Amino acid sequence: MKILTTVFQFGILYLFYFIGSYIQNYFHLAIPGSIIGLLLLFICLCLKIVPVKLIENGATFLLSILVLLFVPTTVGIMNYPSLLSIHGVLLVAAILLSTGISIAIAGTAIQFFEKKGQKRTEVQECNKLSSRSA
Amino acid sequence: MQQALFAFCMILLTVLAYFAMTKLYKRYSYSFLLPVLTATVLIIVTLVILNIPYKDYMMGGQWITSLLGPGVVALAYPLYKQRHYLMKYSFTIAGGVLIATISGMFSVGLLSKILGINDTLTLSIIPKSLTSPVAMEVAEGLGGNASIATVCVTLAGIFGALAAPAIFKMMRVHSPIGRGIALGSASHAIGTSKAAEYSELTFSMSSVAMALCAIIGTFIGPIVAGLLRF
Question: Membrane-crossing residues (chain A) (predicted)?
């Protein structure tokens, strides 16, 4: 029974994916169908058009094996043995360095914003309290 | 019939390799044992030994890849569960993703120019931090090569997931929001699955970042390419 519900919920996720892909093709968008489907499903969940129960099991299962879904694509690297040449090594080096840099910059910047935001709300609350007591 | 059996064997190989490597990773949890990396290596070695070309492997592999679409759609579920955080931190998230996207694209473009990599290749690696279907489109739009873009996206994904714990430690990034957005916007879905190891909040922040990055990236890619003057 549980397998049947999961398969049925897969069907719903597929439906959103197809709708997303259709929208992408119809309007010739650069954003892929899966991302459009994600946004649509999110909106439908928030507006309670689709109850959470209807996708809960299927989504949890798919997300638990999300990495597996990438493996066939990553195996495709075997078609590019030229990555081991000098140009390839430089290319890989640029990608690795840049990925590291952007993780470091983004992580630090966001943590900074977040702390600043928290401080601001704290100050506002303090002001409220002090004005009240005054 | 024989073809169907072969395709089935390839699916079985992928699934077995993945679950075996996941078990290994859970047991020892060294970051270099990341399942996506070890399973990929294991499968490539098997294919090379058995002399099976990638095209044949994909007869089975494409069935697994076809689940990727609904898999990305399923990310709406953790987003929905964390929607209150999304509303509360909407400015932080939007600003963070914007910074991450620009820094990722600009740094890779600049680095490859400094290293003397040719223009077509450089244009193909600029969208490396976007999720692969978007990266392919952006790379082609810029005048690069879609399949090289996919390889670069894969490398950025795996490396980001591998290096992130060390980078977070070095830069003292402890906030789940900061970690999630950094992972999602630099390493798309592979980073997002790494983010799931931290917490549910990190996971959903990473999913939001990945989706936003894909949307923002389609606009910023051409600007970055223009700034680096190709």
Answer: 7-23, 29-47, 59-80, 86-110
B-chain residues near A107 (CB < 8 A): 167-168, 171, 173, 178-179, 181-182
Instruction: For residue B106, give the H/E element and its range.
Output: helix B90-114
Interchain pair A103, B163: CB under 8 A: yes
Q: Place B170 in a pLDDT band, splitting at 50, 70 and 90.
A: very high
A104 contacts on B by Cβ (under 8 Å): 167, 170-171, 182
Q: What is the ipTM of this complex?
A: 0.84
Cβ atoms of B124 and B105 closer than 8 Å:
no
- CB count, 10 Å around CB of B227? 12
pLDDT in the model for residue A130: 62
CA distance B12 to B18: 10
Looking at every residue in chain B, the average pLDDT score rounds to 89
Is the Cβ–Cβ distance between B131 and B149 less than 8 Å? no
For residues A84 and A51, membership in a common domain is answered with: no
Q: Are residues A92 and A111 in the same domain?
A: yes
CA atoms of B119 and B115, how far apart (whole Å) = 12
Number of domains making up chain A:
2
Under an 8 A CB cutoff, do B187 and A99 touch? yes
| Residues in A touching B68 (Cβ below 8 Å) | 34, 69-70, 73
